[in-house]
Amino acid sequence: MTTAVSSASGSDATAGLATATTPLGRLLEQFRAGKPAALARAVSIVENHRAGFEQVLAAQHALLGRARRIGITGPPGAGKSTLTTRLARHYRDAGLTVGIVAVDPTSPFTGGALLGDRIRMEEVALDPGVFIRSMATRGSLGGLATATREVCDVLDGFGKDIILIETVGVGQSELDVSRAADSTLVVLVPESGDSIQTLKAGVMEIADVYTVNKADRPGADRLRNDIELMLGLRAGATTNNMPAHHGVDLRDMAHADRDAMRDAMNPARAARAAAQAEHPDVWTPPVLRSVAAQNEGVAEVADALERHFRYLAASGELRQRRRARLRERVMEVVEQQVRRRLWQDAETLAWLDAQLDALEAGTLVPFAVADALRARSSSLLTGAAYAPLPHPKGISA
Ligand SMILES: Nc1nc2c(ncn2[C@@H]2O[C@H](COP(=O)(O)OP(=O)(O)O)[C@@H](O)[C@H]2O)c(=O)[nH]1
Ligand SMILES: [Mg+2]
Residues 182-239: pLDDT tens digits? Predict the structure, then answer.
């Protein structure tokens, strides 16, 4: 069943949306014309949730999904920013435009780096085909993950072909941020306890491609093997590929059986073999090696990301991931609105304060106050602020 929703809601958020006579209308016009200055301003408005940010985002909605969003995550110092810069260069050389969103307080994109890094960054920073925004400080409602997604939407709507999202660390917020991406590249480094910690902290759930960066240092192959071993064990290679007979003479077995037997005895090998085979509906994360500082292995990383994107498209997972993102997006917006509408309403706060005596005396429980608050605030919560997109059927009930 569908319910038509009137677009004449008298809303504040849609007022002046399409007219070029308002400053925001003029900004959106320049944005649509592809002016880099308009992109920078639009990103700032959205990042800081300044007046008009909803209109800026709403104007992008129908355009979303053209960009490929690639998350690049891993422990501090792993070489994420270096690799991000190299990948940006790689995509620029292929004629693609790039947006970089760095969610990392230690990122050279924010200026906290060695001089050499700054110079390398500037090589892409000065390229008009590359837009860089650092999200190190985010004070407003909604949090970093929301802000990151919203900024990515602006870059996508602007027409950037590739969006690189650099996030540091291993915590839940970084995992949230990585969900803004279509593909996630996890960057690990040898001789760092962080790397295995990172894997344990749930990064294996989100990694589509791994690279062991700083492969010019000892221990890279060892780490690579450890990751492949974990991947192989997780995939259950040991049981799936085990030939029926044990104790057979390997020399009597067909090649395929022998390979299966070896893989069964070596899950890491099995994981590597699975990652090299191109299956339309199974993806085994490849574990690559790179020396980002020397631009080694960068093309291979880009190639693996390309293969992952093909897999996403062919398997239907791209559509699934993006639909899941839309769903989360609506939930996120509702939460933000509820918070803003309730806790920025002076009258509601005054009413709440008036309940404190009874709460303190124990004659009212917080749950009862919450019930009453929601009931008395229902019009605050349901009042329309956004007109639906022009669509013959309106919004589904
Ligand atoms: N030896 C070596 N150093 C690297 C490599 N990649 C990056 N670095 C250096 O490692 C340091 C941290 O790199 P950065 O990209 O800022 O790491 P991030 O914190 O993960 O973004 C910098 O000094 C880089 O020049 C590499 O492959 N090998
Ligand atoms: Mg960095």
Answer: 999 999 999 766 666 666 667 788 899 999 999 999 999 999 998 888 888 777 644 4
Give the pocket of ligand 1 (CB within 6 Å): 76-82, 106-108, 113-114, 117, 213-214, 216-217, 291-293
Tell the residue nearest (CA) to atom 4 of ligand 1: 293
Summarize the confidence of residues 339-351 as an average pLDDT: 93
**Which of 259, 291, 316 is at the close of a domain?**
316
In a domain, 215, yes or no: yes
What's the 268 CA to ligand 2 centre distance in angstroms?
29
| pLDDT value, residue 266 | 78
In the reported structure, the alpha carbon of residue 53 is separated from the centroid of ligand 1 by a whole-number distance in angstroms of 35
Q: Are residues 101 and 243 in the same domain?
A: yes
- Total of domains in the chain: 2
- Shared domain for 143 and 258, answered yes or no, is yes
Same domain for 115 and 263?
Answer: yes
Please report which ligand is nearest the Cα atom of 102: 2
Reading the block at residue 92, the tokens are: 């620029």
Instruction: Provide the H-helix boundaries in 235-345.
Output: 237-240, 255-265, 267-276, 298-315, 317-343
Q: Which ligand is nearest to the CA of 169?
A: 1
**Bridge partner residues of 289 (DSSP):** 212
Protein residues with C-beta less than 5 angstroms from the ion ligand 2? 80-81, 104, 107
Q: Evaluate whether 187 touches 83 at the Cβ level (below 8 Å).
A: yes
Look up the domain containing 116 and give its range: 65-316
The last residue of a domain, from among 277, 292, 316: 316
pLDDT tens-digit readout, 141-167:
457 778 889 999 999 999 999 999 998
Give the Å distance between the CA of 82 and the centre of ligand 1.
6
Judged on CB neighbours under 10 Å (0-12, 13-18, 19+), 223 is: buried
- For residue 192, report the distance from its CA to the centre of ligand 2, in Å: 16
Q: Distance between CA atoms of 380 and 300, rounded to whole angstroms?
A: 53
**201/308 same-domain check:** yes
Q: Is residue 53 part of a domain?
A: no
